[in-house]
């Protein structure tokens, strides 16, 4: 049956609900919109409400009938109300609330304390008449749910008597002939499971918890002070008024059976463990308490799961003490023996039949579908979580919410959680990913280095190619000596040096005599060969590495002579002239000799910033034309003309 709800949007997978849940697997981890969230397995849930209290992300809520109760009242449904004893402590203006509810159409209002008296009366009768050795009290539906689902072997020990609520309603229906639908004003969210249980005969239709009722009143801005005070419609209860406090039943039974062995135990943390021990005790045929007075809530129903939990328990005790005194005075009659006579039970003996208040239970253990893994299966789960060794399987850090790593592995095995909810598993995954990343990173590093090396190699190759291209750009393709571009750059350098160092700079402009005739008569191939021979003769005629020879264009060559004055330049020009003549390149069509000759114009300067290198070349050119004019095969220095 569905009772606890989870808002998956709000759930942050904090695992608190697992941690507080007295059952191992009622909270299951599921995937929702790409994240892990928690859900409730309703078959495994016992409705203890611990997760609703623990979840501080408001992701947990419970089903309650408040809205339906008011809506049915508005439709004219005949509804009477039974009120839990704890309402007196939880709802301020309780009697004005009754006024409001009656105004809304509620017919009769009964105090469940009377039903508590009937329950005690029935317990005492059952214990005495059947001579029972041990009985587990069942007013708390969570205890009943736990035993029916998880400890069916204890069903025979559950008192076969209805709860105070059901005793009240039985009394109303069977003895007061009230046929209305019944609502329960309740401190308990799990009462819904009791009222919908087949064994309670569908006698109650609405579980209206204090908490949801308070929200309802706030939501609809109900001002209770506007309503008159109206009291219960029933006869006054007796000692049943203390039922809602821890040990309330015990106090009732001890009143009638002083000295009886009664185990009083409350709170989810202790109760369910105790029932495990109790079960073992019975199996071993050991003596057990006559009555186990047990409640799921540590402070009893007064601060039950459906309350605001806002009242200090001592304040409740003070109030209960006063109410108890008042109610006992009504039903106790002094006797000569000193032990007062309790007239309420005499009344019950006369008016009620025990059978009316009996109930039975159902073994619901088949709902609990949990398979116990074999050691091999558990080992497989652990290995899938990278828990290879015993130590890692006993970390038991509780961060997954489970009580142990084994319990978590069992949940994984049964599909109730996912291994990603173990933080150590995630750590291991991160570590492995880190390692993997390191390997990948190392490989990337290695490839990068390889790439860098390749880039360096290619760059060097490119630089060589570029340098070669640069070189080729400055080399004359035919003669393989520097071309005019290379000369211009060299001239700029030497020109600047001459300005800087004030050293003389000389230039020879050289032209092959009658080269047109040579070409015309010997052909271009021969002409090219002639140019190559002249070029190599010029290169070998220069003794200094600083001297620079280039092809200037056509049959013209140019030679730059750094640190060379006029005299030195003329001497060098004459040497060149001779060297060419010595080549003895046949030229039958020259007007000078039978061999190839050249004319050389020379210029010399100590350059200043006011001079121009273009003029420097022009003057050398002029000198060369003068050498031609002088009969060719000669040297002429421009300064001789000036
Ligand atoms: S307590 Fe449970 S339901 Fe609430 S946020 Fe945490 S995991 Fe989610
Ligand atoms: S109500 Fe109780 S039993 Fe159910 S899931 Fe929450 S803590 Fe577990
Ligand atoms: S102790 Fe009372 S309020 Fe708490 S679960 Fe049991 S019956 Fe409900």
From TrEMBL:
The organism's taxonomic lineage, starting at the top: Bacteria, Bacillati, Bacillota, Desulfuribacillia, Desulfuribacillales
Residue stretches making up the 4Fe-4S ferredoxin-type domain: 1-32, 36-65
Name of this chain's protein: Diguanylate cyclase
Residue ranges of domain 4Fe-4S in the record: 377-439
Keywords from the UniProt entry: 4Fe-4S, Iron, Iron-sulfur, Metal-binding
GO terms, molecular function: 4 iron, 4 sulfur cluster binding; diguanylate cyclase activity; metal ion binding
Domain GGDEF, residue spans: 503-640
Biological source species: Desulfuribacillus alkaliarsenatis
UniProt cross-references to Pfam families, sorted A to Z: Fe_hyd_lg_C, Fer4_7, FeS, GGDEF
This protein's record includes keyword 4Fe-4S: yes
Gene3D superfamilies with a match to the protein in the record: 3.30.70.20, 3.30.70.270, 3.40.50.1780, Electron transport complex subunit B, putative Fe-S cluster, Fe-only Hydrogenase (Larger Subunit), Chain L, domain 3
Gene Ontology terms: biological process: cell adhesion involved in single-species biofilm formation; negative regulation of bacterial-type flagellum-dependent cell motility
GO CC terms, sorted: plasma membrane
